[in-house]
Amino acid sequence: MNDTPGNERCPRCGGAYVRRARRRSQVEVLLSALYVYPYRCQLCTHRFSAFKFGVRYTRHSSEHREYDRLKVRFPVTCWKEERLFEASATTVSMGGCSLTTLSEIPLEVGQVVRLSLKPTHTESLIDVEAAAVRWARRDLETEFAVNPRLMPSESRVVPRQMVGLEFLRFGPAEEERFRRFVRSLLVAQQQER
User: Fold this and answer.
1) pLDDT of 160-185, one tens digit each?
2) What single string gives the DSSP state of each residue in 130-174?
3) Cβ(143)–Cβ(150) under 8 Å?
4) CA–CA distance from 12 to each of 2, 40, 49, 170 (Å)?
5) Widest distance between CA atoms in the chain
6) CA distance 69 to 66
7) For residue 158, what are the CA distances in angstroms to 23, 63, 103, 110, 138?
8) Looking at the DSSP assignment, which residues form a beta bridge with residue 130?
9) Chain segment 13-30, per-residue pLDDT in tens
10) DSSP assignment letter at 64
11) Is the distance from CB of 140 to CB of 160 less than 8 angstroms?
12) Extents of the domains making up the chain
């Protein structure tokens, strides 16, 4: 997870969960020739630069992401305008999440939805007041594969929608609760390695 030589720490929150970020400008490209690289804290989202003398990075395909995606499986309630539907989160990061749903309510790139995340059975809902759809696709899936409460004989083929969302605004105090949840996932992921 921490792909920074020397175990770089975030200067804002002191967290050790940082990763090298994509260079955004010509200035950052030039600075990298002088061993100054951009980083992003996976918890507080702070972007910063750090000097790493003698370190040269090779470009990886995962570099286009600012945040690590963490695999999860928990229920999400979504509102598109005034219409409610249920979904399941499949990945999360401080920047957003991906969902899978069998809802007939179509989601299109650019739309904004509201979410209630239920990451654990013990914690109350985490409200995301606004999340933008960044990608969406539909395919056919058997309902049994997505809803394990059904018996195979009860299943039918239904359209499944997969959606990538960017978090735009959390409810009051919700972002800190979500940050604690992401921190617990990062710690568990690091302990598995």
Assistant:
1) 899 999 999 998 789 889 988 998 88
2) EEEEEEEEEEEEEHHHH-TTS-GGG--EEEEEEEEEEEEEEPTTH
3) yes
4) 17, 11, 12, 20
5) 64
6) 9
7) 42, 35, 9, 24, 10
8) 169
9) 888 878 788 888 899 888
10) G
11) yes
12) 18-64, 70-192
CA distances 98 to 7, 62, 88, 134, 165, Å, are 29, 16, 9, 10, 6
pLDDT at 80: 92
The pair of structure tokens assigned to 179 is 């940050």
pTM above 0.85, yes or no: no
SS3 call for 180: helix
Q: Which CATH number is 70-192's, of 3.40.50.1360, 2.40.10.220, 2.60.120.1060, 3.40.640.10?
A: 2.40.10.220
Q: Which residue has the higher pLDDT, 190 or 128?
A: 128
Using DSSP's 3-state secondary structure scheme, residue 83 falls into strand
Across all residues in the chain, what is the average pLDDT? 82
